[in-house]
Amino acid sequence: MKAFIRATGNISPQKTFGHPAFLPEAVAYERNRLSCIEPDYKHVLDPKYLRRMSRIIRMGAAAAMECLREGGITKPGAIITGTAYGCLEDTGMFLSKLVEQQEDMLTPTAFIQSTHNTVGAQIALVLGCREYNNTYVHRGFSFESALLDALMYLEEGEATDVLTGSVDEITDASHAILSRFDLYKKDPVSNLGILPATGKGTIAGEGATFFLMSAEPGDADYAVLEGLHTFYKPGNQQVIENEIVSFLRLHDCMPADIDLVITGRNGDARGDVVYDQLTKTIFHGKEQAQFKHLCGEYPTASSFACWLAANILKTGTIPAAMQQTGIASAPAKKILVYNHSNQIHHSLILLAAC
Amino acid sequence: MYASVYIAGVGVISAIGNNVQENLASLEAGAAGMGEIRYLESVHRHQIPVAEVKQDNEQLAHLVGMPVSTSRTALLSLVAAREALTDAGLEAAGTLRTGFISANTVGGMDKTENFYQTFLQDHRQGKLRDVIDHECGTVTELVADRLGISHYITTVSTACSSSANAIFLGTRLIRRGTLDVVVAGGTDALTRFTLNGFNTLMILDRQFCQPFDEYRRGLNLGEGAGYVVLVSERVADMLRQEPYGMVSGYSNANDAYHQTASSPEGVGSFLAMSGALKKAGLTPADIDYINLHGTGTQNNDIAEGTAIKRLFDPTYPPLSSTKSFTGHTLGACGGIEAVFSALALRNGIVYPNLRFETPMKELPFTPETCYHSHVPLRHVLSNSFGFGGNCSSLILSKN
Questions:
Q1: For residues A352 and A334, is the Cβ–Cβ distance under 8 A?
Q2: pLDDT, position A19
Q3: Among the residues of A164-317, which ranges form H helices?
Q4: Are A103 and B196 a contacting pair, CB within 8 Å?
Q5: Cα(B109)–Cα(B220) distance, integer angstroms
Q6: Given B153, B192, B268, which is nearest A103 (Cβ)?
Q7: Which of A141, B34, B136, B320 is most exposed, with the fewest beta carbons within 10 Å of its own?
Q8: How far apart are CA B326 and CA B76, in angstroms?
């Protein structure tokens, strides 16, 4: 199982969309909620569609269009989307009206756009793409589920190229609710200062990241995706280590073969201890780089890490913004992305240079 | 040649029964599950009929041994998923690589809409217990944890085709050799959110729905859950019970026409059905029964009907919409109807399409109106089409 990353599109709290340079600097925030830097959508999306689209649909569709544009593809062989929370703005809007107006005089627009498959469906609609279309909504596995489906679809020979990615948004309501679960550091907090972790809590994030995956290599691929694995609620640290080692073994490598590990450290000491423990064992002496201080914590943040890994492999450089530890002797050829979401959903994504 | 994937067990809860036996009995008796709203708190009680599961949350929670504060979506899911595993003789998965692939569209919305009443007045208020199960994936995990399944878990949400896609993915993961056993299907509870949402679209029938009728007025919303236990050939050989059949064909296409409406000619439906036939290596003449998506809306039935006409004309197998019994259960319907299709295959049943009166003037065929047993069925086609143009078809075949 291998697939080539031919193109990408990424809207995030960093300068990732429409910037020719790869993460030239880190954008700093002084709050516990990072918001995407959104482009002027009318340069990316047909105004006819744009008018009706809510924010998450715009972000998702624009990232997808940018990805296809870069890949030189007008209609992919499949569109597979991951989103943990779905269209929160439309959901919240319809729900609020429903409660406030006591189920009376409601209008359909927000309801229509509230279903979790809206982003994937709107991309298909804009492209006129009638191919396979699926949406996964499984918390910290949403992106990984979409990516696995994409890999399988290519492997089955059903398509030669697949558009896959993830999108999640923060709304005022969702941030108010999630904050009450004691997930975030108290404002003001500097995103660039959350690592290494001190105390509990992280910062909230969001993003839309899409990839064009191909079964066959192209002339200008970013990287090759060599493997993907998820594991759920591992009982202890030993289980985590075993999962990582056996995943690497399945792909004919050992920890020593990995040039760089991108970890999901988010500044919450309760969860970052998992990565710290691994640094003492299987990742000992390994170069590591971070990403959640750049995009914030959200269930599909691993897609942002995957985008960083693909760009590192393509450019041969690790941006200073990633707060790398360890010293590189040569450009990274093999990168492991290891992320966990609240210690429940763990994922491993293995990428190599082409 | 693909490895075969077998259906080793089935489980269902819907407005017409709390388990497989009760559902089958209602299907045979022609007893529909719609009625006045009884359990859902809504101003539309007495006005809009729905097809509710005939158990309140307390009874459901007691049945499955979960806290009564659990989302109804999860309670329904556990009832049906557990029945399916027991039916397959796989309550304890042991060393088998087992997955739980569930679909839903509402997640824990039934609780969130209660939370919002207080939360909207003050963002610091509202019981967090009522939003903790909000995410679709959380509903799946609550059930997976109870079933003891952890090897592979995911959730699909493609509106009304969600659980057909869950079965589709489960089949592929077994074919690929990634998993040995997959409990696949979906669940959805009735909520004020969906009831009012569909009401704004003006596609809810104020009477009991009449799928594929010239004078159809819309759909009735329902709730429930349906799961099949998919197993590899190796596992099927180990089990005491003969499998119900195989998942032989599946296809997913997008209509790419409109966010909520199907193209009048049913392009997506046609692509899904023809794709499933191709995958199964079958021709339309091989299909012995079609379990229609058949919601009863003007738009769905003409789109689906036109696609069937294009594919099957001039010879049509018996076809019917069991939504005339269960209502439209949204994220659960693909699972519930896959269970009905598996039962049809094993028991040789063609289900009636209740309340059908007048043929649609555009279509040369009419749905089956009587219950038939002892019908030799080899291949059954089940359709699930939804918002966002997501269209999926499954074909179940005799072993």
A1: yes
A2: 85
A3: 172-179, 237-250, 269-280, 292-295, 302-315
A4: yes
A5: 19
A6: B192
A7: B34
A8: 14
Residue B1: pLDDT over 70: no
CB contact at 8 A, B394 and B164: yes
Torsions phi, psi of B304, nearest 5? -65, -45
Residue B260's pLDDT is: 87
Strand partners, B254: B390
Q: Is B44 on the interface with A (CB under 8 A)?
A: yes
- The SS3 of residue B101 is strand
What's the pTM value of the predicted model, to 2 decimals?
0.98
pLDDT tens column, B116-141: 999 999 999 999 999 999 999 999 99
With beta carbons under 8 A apart, name residues in chain A contacting B260: 108, 112
- Report the residue of chain A nearest B173, measured CA to CA: A152
Residue keyed to tokens 């990403």 = A291
Q: What is the DSSP letter of A108?
A: S
ipTM attached to this prediction: 0.98
Binned at pLDDT 50, 70 and 90, residue B259 comes out as confident
Q: What pairing do the DSSP bridges indicate for beta strands B319-320 and B289-291?
A: parallel
Pairing mode of beta strands A3-11, A223-232: antiparallel
Concatenating the DSSP letter of every residue in A38-78 gives ---GGGTS-HHHHTT--HHHHHHHHHHHHHHHHHT-SS-SE
* pLDDT tier at B394, thresholds 50, 70, 90: very high
pLDDT for B269: 97
DSSP A101: T
Q: Is B374 a catalytic residue?
A: no
Interface membership of B355 toward A (CB under 8 Å): no
Indicate the average pLDDT of chain B.
97
Q: Tokens 């005339």 label which residue?
A: B324
pLDDT band of residue B93 (cuts 50, 70, 90) is low
φ/ψ (deg, to 5) at B384: -140, 115
Q: What is the mean pLDDT of residues A101-105?
A: 96
Question: What is the DSSP annotation of A175-195?
Answer: HHHHHTTT-BPPSS--GGG--
* Encoded amino acid at B239, one letter: L
pLDDT digits (tens, 9 = 90+) for A62-74: 999 999 999 999 9
Helix, coil or strand: residue A261: strand
Q: Give the pLDDT band (50/70/90) at residue B2.
A: low
Residues contacting B272, CB < 8 A, separation 6+: B251, B252, B253, B383, B385, B391, B392, B393
Task: Give chain B positions within 8 Å (CB) of A99.
Answer: 113, 116-117, 120
Q: What is the pLDDT of residue A330?
A: 85
The band of A262, judged by pLDDT with boundaries at 50, 70 and 90, is: very high
Residue B316, pLDDT score: 98
**B31 contacts: CB under 8 Å, gap ≥ 6:** B16, B325
For residues B311 and B284, give the distance between their C-alpha atoms in angstroms, rounded to a whole number: 7
Torsion angle, CA of A70/A74/A77/A80, rounded to 10 degrees?
A: 60
Helix (H) or strand (E) holding A11: strand A3-11
Element containing residue A226 per DSSP (H, E): strand A223-232
Residue partners of A219: CB distance under 8 A and separation at least 6: none
